[in-house]
Amino acid sequence: MARVWVLDTETKGTGAAMVPLEKTLRKPAPAKEPFFVAPEPRPREEAPPESRRPRRFRVVDLVSRRVLADDVDARGTLDALRDVRSLVDVHISVWDPELERWRLLTLEEEQAIWAQRKRAA
Known about the structure:
The chain is of the alpha+beta class. It has a domain at 57-120. The chain is 21% helix and 25% strand. The chain is built from 3 helices and 6 strands. It has helices at residues 21-24, 74-81, 107-120; strands at 5-8, 17-20, 57-61, 67-72, 90-96, 101-104. The N and C termini lie far apart (106 Å).
């Protein structure tokens, strides 16, 4: 049986092409799958937030490497900083319970404690 050829003009930018008639005929669309609706998520029961423990600080003199205060609360930290001449003379660390190690405070955090020291004096 002979094939029927037609001029297909639906090509992109290259012009028309001769194709068999079967390729130009539209095929029926495939049957759609049923639409899936996800179930509503159940609300989670919120656990009560853990109470935060007071932060623990360590103050170390940079020149002598002497520990001025170790494992003290904020008030003890301010007391240890009372005799310090400048903020750059000490390192202040805070205990991080998640990492279970001392974390050196950032400059902004140290400046906030230093400002509290001035107010407490």
